[in-house]
């Protein structure tokens, strides 16, 4: 039985999904105005491992991760410049070009890291009508008010405000800085819709003004739309956004729905560089692409899994060298097992069950990946001893390989250059290649569509070859 730490209750709780066999999950995605840094890689791999373990446990997971393409202002502020617009002005291009460029960049990184594609990746610019409707509803319900074309959420109307981050309204009021924005009734109120200044590029007509949505409202609207106007199972994100972003999401969604937004809040921790907090101003923020180039995606993924998702990670040469050495060990182990497994059938006396039980106990304990990996290393040590003693049969090796494949469906490590593509897809690709050879282009196109529908794309390369990739940004499967 999976026990998951729930930030909302501050304790580990048994995970029971709302609908049997199905999990609905929303994860706050990156604001796409720059390349992803290592902290993003850590977070989205951690959420991918959680999702994969839910699938390993038999659940069907509907996984939503947004790309924020409007409304996230510089310094996470309530007024000022949009992060994307600032970049667009600096590079003298349209903001859409910025968001398209960095969504593609993020998707390349996520594909390299073998992160499974989301069921859907919504963007707030595609949700403006729904956002306006949602805000209108909050005004009608008395939770929000309009002043001079901007709309604010009235925190005092939602007495549970602060329950996620553990802050008390009284303390927040004492701590609130002298409010510059005099439109707000209370300094804790936050913007749902912001009236645009004339130099603002991204703006839309609404009942209140030509303006744009606040940063927090998008996650409430898109999770509601794509997960069914109801409480959903798991909300994931980085714990640095617990306040105000996640706290405000809770207030908006629960005011709108009249019930809980999400049962579980699962938040990952940050990555330090040589013991220091990464920040743009310090110049010690590691670009994910640089790290991937330097160490390879599988080593990065293994390094991430080597820490519990709620612990602070430290990026250092030594920790990555350790991950590389461990990856080599796993590679060798799999190659050894594959070589052994080719012999004739034989008896098997190897008992894999204790390893499986230990793996599942570790993962059931709040996705404890470092302990789950230690079970794999124990298995490697034990099998190596048996190989030396010539006491491991082909049948044993087959059993061990089957177990490895099952646990690696959770770790998601792509070893010696293999890409994890389902058999169904490779069969279709082979059929398509045959059709192409026979110059049956109608059939070849048909097969390509079928592959598309299953969430994969075939890209033809210049040397008459092709590559198969999981497709990103798939259409919503409602
Ligand atoms: Zn969010």
If you had to describe this structure to a student in words, what would you say it looks like?
The protein has 478 residues and is an alpha/beta fold. The chain folds into three domains: 266 residues, Rossmann fold, CATH 3.40.50.620; 95 residues, Up-down Bundle (Four Helix Bundle (Hemerythrin (Met), subunit A)); 48 residues. The strands form five sheets. It has a four-stranded parallel β-sheet, with helices on both faces. Strands 5-6-7-8 form a four-stranded antiparallel β-sheet, covered by helices on one side. Strand 1 and strand 2 form a beta hairpin. It is globular, with a radius of gyration of 25 Å. The C terminus is likely disordered. Bound molecules: zinc ion.
Q: Features of this protein?
A:
Rossmann fold; 45% helix; Four Helix Bundle (Hemerythrin (Met), subunit A); disordered C terminus; binds zinc ion; 478 residues; 4-stranded antiparallel beta sheet
List the helices and strands and how they pair.
Blueprint: E1 3-6, E2 11-14, E3 22-27, H1 38-56, E4 60-65, H2 83-91, H3 95-112, H4 128-140, E5 144-147, E6 150-153, H5 169-175, E7 190-195, E8 211-213, H6 217-227, E9 232-238, H7 242-257, E10 262-268, E11 271-273, E12 276-277, H8 288-295, H9 297-305, E13 313-315, H10 317-341, H11 353-364, H12 369-388, H13 394-411, H14 423-437, H15 441-453, E14 456-460, E15 466-470
Parallel strand pairs: 3-4, 3-9, 9-10, 11-13
Antiparallel strand pairs: 1-2, 5-6, 6-7, 7-8, 11-12, 14-15
């Amino acid at each position: 039985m999976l026990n998951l730490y729930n930030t909302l209750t501050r304790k580990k709780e048994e995970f029971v999904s709302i609908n049997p066999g199905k999990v609905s999950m929303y994860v706050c995605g990156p604001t796409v105005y720059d390349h992803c840094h290592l902290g993003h890689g850590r977070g989205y791999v951690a959420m991918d491992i959680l999702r994969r373990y839910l699938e390993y446990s038999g659940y069907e997971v509907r996984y939503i991760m947004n790309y924020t393409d409007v409304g996230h202002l510089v310094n996470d502020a309530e007024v000022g410049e949009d992060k994307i617009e600032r970049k667009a002005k600096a590079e003298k291009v349209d903001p859409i070009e910025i968001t398209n460029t960095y969504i593609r960049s993020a998707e390349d990184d996520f594909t390299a890291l073998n992160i499974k594609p989301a069921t859907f990746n919504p963007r707030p610019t595609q949700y403006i009508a729904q956002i306006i409707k949602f805000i209108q509803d909050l005004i009608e319900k008395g939770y929000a008010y309009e002043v001079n074309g901007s709309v604010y959420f009235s925190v005092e109307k939602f007495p549970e405000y602060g329950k996620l981050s553990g802050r008390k309204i009284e303390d927040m009021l004492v701590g609130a800085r002298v409010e510059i924005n005099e439109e707000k009734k209370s300094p804790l109120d936050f913007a749902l819709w912001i009236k645009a200044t004339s130099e603002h590029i991204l703006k839309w007509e609404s009942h209140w003004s030509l303006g744009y949505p606040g940063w927090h409202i998008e996650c409430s609207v898109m999770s509601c739309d794509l997960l069914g106007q109801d409480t959903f199972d798991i909300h994931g994100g980085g714990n640095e956004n617990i306040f105000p972003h996640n706290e405000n999401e809770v207030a908006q969604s629960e005011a709108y729905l009249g019930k809980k937004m999400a049962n579980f809040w699962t938040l990952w921790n940050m990555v330090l560089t040589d013991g220091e907090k990464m920040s743009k101003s310090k110049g010690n923020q590691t670009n994910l692409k640089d790290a991937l180039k330097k160490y390879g995606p599988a080593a990065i993924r293994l390094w991430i899994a080597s820490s519990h998702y709620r612990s602070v990670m430290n990026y250092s040469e030594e920790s990555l060298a350790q991950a590389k050495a461990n990856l080599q060990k796993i590679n060798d182990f799999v190659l050894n097992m594959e070589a052994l497994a080719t012999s004739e059938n034989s008896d098997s006396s190897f008992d894999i069950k204790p390893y499986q039980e230990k793996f599942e106990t570790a993962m059931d304990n709040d996705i404890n990946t470092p302990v789950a990996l230690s079970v794999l290393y124990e298995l490697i040590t034990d099998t190596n001893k048996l190989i030396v003693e010539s006491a491991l049969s082909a049948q044993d090796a087959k059993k061990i390989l089957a177990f490895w494949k099952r646990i690696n469906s959770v770790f998601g490590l792509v070893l010696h250059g293999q890409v994890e593509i389902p058999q169904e897809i490779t069969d279709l690709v082979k059929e398509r290649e045959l059709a192409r050879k026979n110059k049956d282009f109608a059939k070849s196109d048909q097969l390509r569509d079928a592959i598309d529908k299953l969430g994969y794309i075939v890209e033809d390369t210049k040397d008459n070859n092709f590559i198969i990739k999981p497709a990103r940004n798939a259409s919503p499967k409602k």
